[in-house]
Hints:
Structural class: mainly alpha
Low-confidence stretches: 161-169
Radius of gyration: 26 Å
Amino acid sequence: MRLKNIELWGSALAIFLITALYLLVTARSSVPAASSAFGHGIGIAGFVLMLMTETLYSLRKKYQFARWGKLQNWLSFHIFTGLVGPFMVLLHTSWKFQGLAGVLMLLTLIIVGSGFLGRYVYTAIPRSIEGNELGSDQIQELLDANLEQFKAWKRFHLGGTASDHYNLHFTPAGIVKNQKRFFKELIDQGIEREAVLSLKEILRSRKQLEKQIASLGKTRKLLAIWHAVHVPLALSMFLVAAVHILAALYFSTLLK
């Protein structure tokens, strides 16, 4: 079973370990300067992770030649690198935010915040097990399949000679509105608890699909707006980062 929000738990663990290493280095001397070996190392590693954030998931999503692995797993990796990379860059600054480095850090924090927002908008769009986006027709097919599953449950557990009470009221919409009372009635009528739990899962899936198809259009518009803002911000951040890196190389290496 896939751990829920595994990318957030993984990011938290990585950030904890990196912080422990940073505190150890700090305790042995002082706050590592951005120009120190540790400062350069953590900055380069963070920047590489940020580059991976902006490239690998996009390649997997857009291009046929990069169709390896599940899209959902690449999204998790995208979120992981998008959190850990900026944190490492933050430590690289040695807590000095003047000039270009300050602008870069501000853009990085904005991108991270935007990424969190995009994650929840993105995951609101229904997707297949592989992580591919589902259209309204595909969701309707899932709804139809769910209804057939519901009818099969009814035939198996109530039989073809169910009472008028069930014939009149045993519908997905009706049960969703009165779940607690209705499930109690089923158990009182002798339906096994495991069967009632399976019915609950069928109805939970149906309710989720109905919400998804109702909000699909609005969610897609929100994602389009987010994408139109997030991508230019990310490009601006990498442009500033490139200037920062070239300037650092020029002043620390070429002028010596």
